[in-house]
Design goal:
This protein has two helices and no strands. By secondary structure, the protein is an all-alpha fold.
Length: about 110
């Protein structure tokens, strides 16, 4: 009777492998398809996060670039105005120098 208790029949024996998916296993069974799906989802999240970060970087860069261009245009406009003012001031100085030269010559009795 003891030998009868230890014997198993082929129909009652189940063979578990590490690759068998059993949702009721205590720690979960190895599921290559599930791992593949999880890996693909993780990769997709990484790529999407990377693209979002690059897009945010590009947007920030574009905003900074716009500020730099605006400042550069303002500076060029200011420099142009300064150059115009310098030319006009030079003309004023030249006219004043001619006027003073003529007055000095008249005082010395030089006639034209």
């Amino acid at each position: 009777m003891a030998s009868n208790d230890t014997r198993k029949t082929a129909s009652s024996t189940t063979t578990e492998t590490p690759f068998t998916h059993d949702a009721h296993a205590p720690h979960g069974a190895f599921d290559p398809t599930g791992f593949w799906t999880q890996g693909q989802q993780a990769w997709t999240r990484l790529v999407n996060d990377s693209v979002a970060r690059w897009q945010a970087f590009a947007d920030q860069y574009a905003a900074i670039e716009q500020q730099i261009a605006t400042h550069a245009q303002t500076a060029v406009t200011s420099w142009a105005q300064l150059a115009k003012d310098a030319i006009a001031y030079g003309q004023q100085l030249s006219a004043e120098a001619r006027k003073l030269s003529l007055e000095a010559a008249r005082k010395l009795g030089v006639s034209a």
